[in-house]
Write a structure and sequence with these properties.
Order of helices and strands: HHHEHEEEHH
Strand content: 5-15%
Oligomer: single chain
Helix content: 40-55%
Shape: elongated
Number of domains: 3
Number of strands: 4
Radius of gyration: 24 Å
């Protein structure tokens, strides 16, 4: 399938998934640039070199990085002070590339080779035990980040998105199964009076409506985006 302009733009982005451009990930930013809804100088991780690469693709002049989105900087890696970590998992949930290992009420740790330096894990930490450490000295932007690292980050981000969708679908299936079982139980309840019959019907309608909503969410999730 021929690549779209958005595809070509995305290929030039550093794939840190940091959201500093104002979009939730690199792909939406690429689409926004292609659609003329965003400028091509909003990616601090790519820095001035990133602006130049996009300008060349788009046939536009090289302009300055928009500093309202952040400054070009060295490559940073998150470090967790494990002695203070309380195992809340908030940083794990925030990491866009699954670069943090751990479980609830257990110590967390960062896989530095996977960390993109997005720093999205810092703010959610309730005990302020995450810091960002410079690992590229004076090198910044694309001088501190390679195409290979970008490809790896993109792969891990897409893998995480696939996993999250799968987990959501599995959870919906579990809830749907429980609701159906509850509906069967309610339907089999004896109704010895008009009041009991009315209450039974009320419960049945509530559960049936919940099942229909769950089925609609499932249908919506299975409908491919145009």
């Amino acid at each position: 399938m021929p690549s779209t302009l958005a595809d070509q733009i995305e290929d030039l982005l550093p794939q840190t998934q940091c959201t500093k451009c104002g979009y939730p990930a690199c792909r939406p930013y690429a689409v926004a640039i292609a659609d003329g809804l965003a400028r091509y100088n909003q990616c601090p991780p790519g820095g001035q070199e990133g602006v130049a690469r996009l300008a060349n693709l788009l046939g536009k002049p090289v302009i300055a990085l928009n500093l309202t989105h952040g400054h070009e900087r060295a490559r940073l890696v998150a470090i967790i002070e494990e002695a203070y970590c309380i195992g809340c998992t908030l940083c794990i949930q925030a990491c866009p590339v699954d670069a943090i290992l751990g479980a609830a009420k257990q110590m967390h740790t960062v896989l530095p080779e996977l960390c993109t330096g997005c720093d999205l894990c810092v703010a959610p930490c309730p005990v302020d035990c995450i810091s960002m450490v410079n690992v590229s000295a004076e090198k910044t932007g694309w001088d501190a980040w390679t195409e290979t690292q970008a490809a790896q980050a993109r792969k891990h981000y897409e893998s995480r998105q696939t996993r999250l969708v799968r987990e959501q679908q599995e959870n919906e299936e579990r809830l749907l199964a429980k609701a159906r079982e509850k509906l069967r139980a309610v339907s089999s309840e004896p109704a010895l009076s008009a009041e009991q019959a009315a209450e039974k019907e009320r419960k049945r309608q509530i559960i049936s409506a919940a099942i229909e909503r769950a089925q609609q969410r499932k249908r919506d999730s299975e409908t491919p985006e145009s």
